[in-house]
Write a structure and sequence with these properties.
mainly alpha; disordered N terminus; disordered C terminus; two-stranded antiparallel sheet
Amino acid sequence: MNPAMNSPAASADVPADPRRHGPPVAGGLRRAGWIAITASATAIGLLSARYFTLDPDSFLPEQRVTYLADLAPLMLHVGGGVVALVLGPWQFPQRLRTRRPVVHRLIGRVYLVSALATAAGGLLLVPKGLFGPIAPLGFAALAVLLLVATVAAFVSIRRGAVARHQIWMIRSYALIFTGVTFRLWISGFAAAGVPFGQAYGSGAWASWLLNLLVAEHVVARLRTGHRAAGPVQGDTAAGGPASGMTTSDFAASGVTASDGTASGVGVSGDAVRDDGSGGTDRR
């Protein structure tokens, strides 16, 4: 046996790369988090799709007249939100990005258009929102931030800044995922006996702020892991040039932290209300 093989100096020459050999438990948590987010996003997307029937009974009672008078922005908002919410998680699995780059780019383009549509529709509905000015301002801020994050993701990838693109996509989907977290917020407060108006107004801000906090936590952990491991040659995403962060850093990380924490994110501004049957109605 060669003694040099066991020497500290020899070991130091070949640093471990946590991006290549992450703890199995962390990988399992990431996978479980991604599945949970994908399942909840799909469920809410299917629930929201009932708006496409244009049945007034599917609308929130307090907004029924408003929605019937503004079907165009409503369908823009709901249609874009449903597509972005359901497709978003599929942007993050590394296997899909590396083995099916054409599919990854197609999903990204559809997501981009859908996210911009739901933000635009949400902004058009803001002036007629419930419980003003607090709730409408919260949804307006959400829509503006969604526009900024999604456009920044697009501009970054067009410039070949893959790592920056991935970070902005994490933020963009965190905002889209508000379609889920807002419903959970409203349902939880309704179960606790909090008046609907209070839950609605607070949720218009808290649901997406919490999502962004978790998204920034995910981004910070990725950056820390990258600095500790150093660059990995040739590890790029979506056909872009080599960048500071690698695709393996972002495997499932757009929706989960390395400790399995879900990074939430929405179909902007669409509220839910307990209908007494265990389900919920959108705003």
